[in-house]
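# step 3/5: fold
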Amino acid sequence: MALAVAVGAAAVPHSAQAVPRNPDRGEAGAPAPDRDHRRDGSPRPRPSDGHTPKGVPAAVGVRLLDAPVNRRDDTRAHKYIVDHVQPGTTIRRRIVVENASKVRRDVDVYPAAAEVTDKGFGFPPGRAENELSSWISVDRDRVELGADDETTIRVTIRVPEKAEAGERYAVVWAETAGSDGRTVKQVARAGIRVYLSVGPGGEPPSGFEVAPLVGGRDADGTPFVAAEVHNTGRRALDLTGELWLAEGPGGLSAGPVRAEARTLPLDGRTTVRVLLDRRLPDGPWQARLELASGWTKRTANGEISFAAAPAAARKADRSSLVLTSGAAGSVLILLLFGLFTYRRRLRQPVPVG
């Protein structure tokens, strides 16, 4: 089995590579889901398995076509399906599915489970379901597309009246499969992430804190700027941003340099680390890091340097420790010698007369 995956990416081709996964299992340690039927009992479409001419890998792309008017300034809502709704609400989006290969293909379109953990936005292999994916339907679950052709798919999310409050995650996938004409099966899929918050009233707040900036160099001499980020809000975050350096040696400046981090769960922490050109001098520099998740933005400023800690200072610290230990040992030896002399005098006979 070969698999190529992109989530929330633009419609670009993805080459298939061998992946040692068991496609018949869902969540780790859980029994395999029913791959033939949906939760409502309706049959699932079987994956397409058209012949792939040798040297033409399976490839598919997908992108979001529209977003809510009230999220026109939310950059995430232009890449992913992001929304907050009340129970009983129905929302609709359009996505574009592209056959990014050079031959005609059948492409399957379907929702599947996802989750956000300390490791970021993740999803099990195959078509495992969760609560949110069971609310999602598409107007066409299989389309036939010519080489480099594309089509529009309508996605509908129907939230039950009794849905509990909270944020849920899923992916709407486009998948195509083929064969090299022998024994190797190729599968390629790309998807649109879904972040859906459900609950009464307004949307839960998003927020994060950025720790002070630090600079350094990797073992190979590559300079970096890093900062720890803490998700203090009530929605998952996808952090992207830019780093600038100014007022460096000789008036040098650098940037903007792109910065990004994995998806942060509620109360999650991660380190945003930006690698820079090895030719940059140590500094000092005035650094500015701007990060955003949707319309939630933060800026961190600080003076940083890429220089390592001076070796002389570390040696001085160790010498001080050795001198202190040596002095303590000398005092102990003197005390023991004094005690021995005193006890010896007590044992000597005292002359009479």
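# step 4/5: annotate
The mean pLDDT is 77.
# step 5/5: archive (pending)
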